[in-house]
Amino acid sequence: MNTKPELHVVWLKRDLRLQDNEAIYNALATGKQVLILYSFEPLLLNDPHYSERHWNFIKESLVDINHNLKPYNSKVFIAQSNIIAVFNQLLSKYRITKVFSHQETGILVTYERDKNFERFCKNNLITWVENINNGVQRGLKNRDNWMALCNSYFEITPLNFAPNANQLLSIPEIEAIEAHFKIPDLTTPSNAIFQKGGRTMGLKYLNSFFKERYPNYMQHISKPELSRSSCSRISPYIAWGNLSIREVYAQAYNLKKTSKHKKALEAFMSRLRWQSHFIQKFEMEHTMEEASINKGFHKLKKSISQDYLKAWKTGTTGYPIIDACMRCLNETGYLNFRMRALVVSFLTHNLWQPWQEATTHLSQMFLDFEPGIHFPQLQMQAGETGINMLRIYNPIKNSLEHDPEARFIKKWVPELENLEIPFAHQPYLMTPLEEQFLNFKLGVDYPYPIVELDSTRKKASDVLWNLRKNKKVLKESTRILKKHTLKRPK
After folding, report:
1. Strand 95-102 vs strand 6-11: parallel, antiparallel, or unpaired?
2. Where does the record place the Photolyase/cryptochrome alpha/beta domain (predicted)?
3. Residues within the annotated binding site?
4. Model confidence at 50, in pLDDT bands (50, 70, 90)?
5. N or C: which end of the chain has fewer CB within 10 A?
């Protein structure tokens, strides 16, 4: 007879919150004693898609959770270890009968880890209960019923965190477990300009958006500078699960009933839905991490230029709006959607580089890195799906239209700060006399453009449009549409 105390474990992944967390809610509903666990796994710490900014955001999120667990004399058990090693150690002291977590639509290494963990649970007679995350359904063959299933998820009232007295494993008990593990330092830089992690901070952004910022949502959504305040800025809090997409949607829905700015809220809610749509697509097409969803584009070969890649990553391409975007992203972890599309279009079309060469740099830089958004969007902007409109963004047109006063450019490319507005957008238009008058030397103070826009755009357009006529591309396009076209419930 096993005399060890019974324990249920909640394994946190990208759901770093207590409120509206189905894994925690369902674990507490059993009435058994519960341990909440997070592990900094070496397989992810060493994965090239992640960077220090992500781990700091996660640490700040965990610190915030622990602050909210203090009244319950509990905290998250935080280890730095392989997840199976964590459970092996827990099993030496406790009889673990159930593990609760959310299904994760992650990268290939997390998929393989989960398969290994599933085998581990079966071998140790542990029931692993996985809950749906963000309305994404596992195992679907097509989208015939997806919209109805997604609607059902969004319509559930957000769940409260309400443990029974002494139901959560106590701090002394958790500290006894920690003695057997490497415990990560949760200290993060205080001077970083990234958004801070944690539900408390996420709610501040959400509340300020709904209280005062959302009316300008649609007017400024494409503006690189103005969007930084008029957009919600909650994407990292959704990506890492500080906020549930369901509770955000519910607040927007309720506000819409009395708001004078219904269209802004409808646009915002639509994007919440599209987030689930793209993650669902990635869930159903996991090969998108490494190859284009449309297999007809696998024959497209592009020569990799390390010089082009370096200029693009460091913001030294000679095109101010591109360089401002990349420098801003590298320093702050945020760009609005249009500018994200612009820099990917420039890399894949004008520089003619494979989209795969953008994956790790952008994932490391985006504070809100979400695999289910990341890979489908890269392929869509690269024009390699066969079903989406081919969009080759013109950097100059976007620069003039969305940053007309060149404020964003001058903020992030300070070497152009003293130039007149037209030259800040296109410094290569200056004559030698104008350069002398402005004490500015192109090629010294700022690089010449590394490519010519019109010719590179034409090459990309010709190649991609011709490839879209290929029989395999057409066949794949039909397959993709049949599999992923949304069908609304009757």
Report:
1. parallel
2. 6-136
3. 217, 268
4. very high
5. N
